[in-house]
Give the backbone structure.
Amino acid sequence: MLALTGYTDRFSAPPGGRIAFRISSAFEEDYQVDLVRIIHGDPNPEGPGIKLRPVASAIEGPYPSRYQPVQLGSCAEIPLAAMPAGLEGSRTVGAVIWPTLPDRGPQTVVSVRDPATGGGFWLSIGPDGAAIDVASDTGETVSASTGTPLVRHQWYRVWACIEPDAGRITVHQDPVEPRFMCDDAGAGSVSSGGTTGGQGAPSLLIAARAARTRDQHFNGKIEAPFLLASTDPQTVAAVFAGDAPAALVARWDFSRAITTRRVEDTGPNGLHGILLNLPARAMTASGWDGSEMCFAHRPEHYGAIHFHEDDLHDCGWEDDFVFEVPDDIPSGIYGCRLRCRHVEDVIPFYVRPHTGRPTSDVVFLASTFTYQVYANHRRDNTDHRFREKGLSWGASQHLPDDHSDYAHSTYNKHLDGSGVAYSSRLRPILTMRHNFLTFDDPFGSGMRHLPADTHLIDWLDAMGHGVDIVTDEDLDDEGVELIAPYRVVITGSHPEYHTSGTLDALHEYAHRRGGRLMYMGGNGFYWRVARNADWPGSLEIRRAENGIRTWAAEPGEYYNAFDASYGGLWRRNGRPPQLLAGVGFSSQGAFEGSYYRRAPGSDDPRVAWILEGINEEILGNFGLSGGGAAGFELDRADVLLGTPEHAVVIASSENHQPSFIPVLEDQLSQRNTYTGVPHASLIRADIVFFETANGGAVFSVGSITFCGSLSHQNYANSISRMIDNVLRRLRGD
C-alpha cells in the first residue's frame, strides 16, 4: 500500500455541504493537510505547467497518522444468532461450484468458524480437490480431501459429511456433466475422533473463511450452497436436485433478489444474509442452456454468483476530517493535499453550485463515471523511460502497475482471468490525480481523463470564461433540472460512460429545451453503465457482444445485474452517440495526434462565425496530447447512425498514423463496413455543428486529444480561437 493516501465519501458537494476524507498514513508523525484549487495538472514543461492555487480552509493543519488496511475479496455473510438447530450432530455442507483457479488454494466455499476459539468447519477446494476441515474449540483440526484435482471452468457438486458420533468426516466432488476421459470425481474420508466446534460462530461465510479477518477467498462461481442436518446420501442428492427435505437447515438461492446485495435462504430458518465487496451477480448457473439471455426472464438459470479474491467495494476506512464547504467558495475542481516527509498526494473533489442557483451561464460536466470506470487501470506500460520522464516532470509516482492494493479498473481482469465488471469510488483512485501520466507520449504529455480535462479547465480560466462544475453522478441523481438553467453545457475530453439517466438528461437539454451542448472530446456516450442503491458509489459495466474491449462478457451475461438493463454499447441499445452529439466513435489508434482540414461546409453562412478570424486551412497540427488536435480516438458524423441531415461538418481530420483502425462495430468483414464505405474513410474525426429545437445547438470536436491543443502559443492559436468563437456565440441570445 501507499505510505500516504486517501479518498472521499463523495465526489462533489455544494456550498453548505460536506465531504469526508478517509486517510491512511504509514508514518509515525503527523501529516499536513491544505486545500488547493486545481487549474492545470499537466506537468509537461512545454505547456503552462502545473497550476495549483492555495485556498485557505478550516481543514488546513496537522493530523495524526494512522494506518487503515484494505480487505480485498468478496463473499456472502450470514449472521448467526446461534448455531442453527440440527447442526450439533451429523451434518452435510455443500454447493455447486465452477472454479476458475482450482490449482490455487485453499479457497473456501462455505465456512462456520468462531473467531474467539478457532473452532468450526469449512468446505474448500485446492490443488488436491475438494476438502473439509473441522476444528474443535480447543484447537484440534482434522482434514480430509478428495485428492483429485478439479478442472477449471467445469461445474461440480461438492459436499462434506461431518459425523461426530461415528467419528468420521467425508468429502465428495462430482462433475455435473461427466466428460469423456476425464476422471475428476472423487471422495476422501478421515477419522475425526468426534471433533466438532464453532458453536459460538457469529456468522457463516460463503466464498471466504470466517476468521478475525476474512481470508481464503473463493475464485469462481458458487450456486445453491446448503446446510443439511443429515448425511444420508439420498437426502443429500435430493437437496442437490432442488428439493427441500425435512432435514434441510438452510439453502441459499442466488437466483432470488439478483438486483440487490441480499442473499436469501429458502430453508426453514430464514438465514438471510448480504454480499460483501461486490461479487458478480446475474451469472449463468449450471442449468443455463442458452434458451434465455436475460436473467430477469428466467432467474433460475442465473442462480450463481462469481466471487473473486480481489473484489472491492468500499475500503471501509473511518473519516479523518470533514470539509464543510463554505458559502463563498467558487465552483471548481479542488484538491486536498496530504504531505509527510517526501510523500505527497492530492485527493480531488468538486465544489458544485446549488441546484437551480447557477453562478455562471456555462457548466462543465465532469466525466466522473468515466474516471471511475478507468480507476486504477493497470496498463503494464510503465517502463524505465516512462518513470524517468514522470519523475523529472514532477508527475505522480503512484502507479497502478505497482499497487494492486486498491483493486483494479474495469479495463483489467481479475486474477482468475474474468473481466472486472464493477468499479467503486470508495477507495484511493491513483489514476484520478491532477498530474497522473497515462502514456509515454513522445509528442506530448500522455494524459487522460481528469488530468487531460484540466487542459480545458485551464483554457477556460485563462480566457476569462467563468464556469460552474457538476459531475456525472450529480446529473444522474438530479436529471435535466440540474443543467436546465445553463445556456451551455460543456464536456471534457472523454465522456465515454453513461447511464440512461445522464443520456436522457443531456438529450432533453440539448434537443428539446434549447440548451447548447459543446462536446469537447472523442469516444463519448459509448458504453452503458448501471448504478444500484444497494452498492453506493459503484458502477457496473457488461462488455457485451462488440466494441473496443479489453475483455468480453461471457454468453448469457450481457445484462447488468444492477438494473437488468442490456449492457454494452449504447449503439447496441439503439442510442448511437450521433443521435445526441452528431458524431460517434469511428476509429482508434496509438496515442498520436494529427490535424484537421477545413471542410467546404465551414463557409456556410450558418456556421461561418465558427472559424471567424482563422485563416489557416490546416487546424490543430500541434498540442500537448499526441502532438495534434485529432488523435487517439476519433468520432465521425454519420447520417445512418443519427447525425441530423442539417448538421454541418466544419473540418475533418486526415493523415493519421498506421496504428489507426476503424472501430470493430463498423467492420462487418475484411472488406465490408456498416455504412458500406471503405475502411480507410472511417479513420477520421469530424468537427460538427447543428441547431436543435427551441434555439438549442450542438457543437462537437470528435477527438480525445483536441483539448491538448488549446494552450499552444500561450492560447493564441486556431483551436483556441475556434472554441472561443463557439463558446461566446453559444452563450449569447
Summary: The radius of gyration is 28 Å. The chain is about 10% helix and 30% strand. The helical segments are 233-240, 368-373, 384-393, 449-462, 472-478, 500-511, 577-581, 718-731.
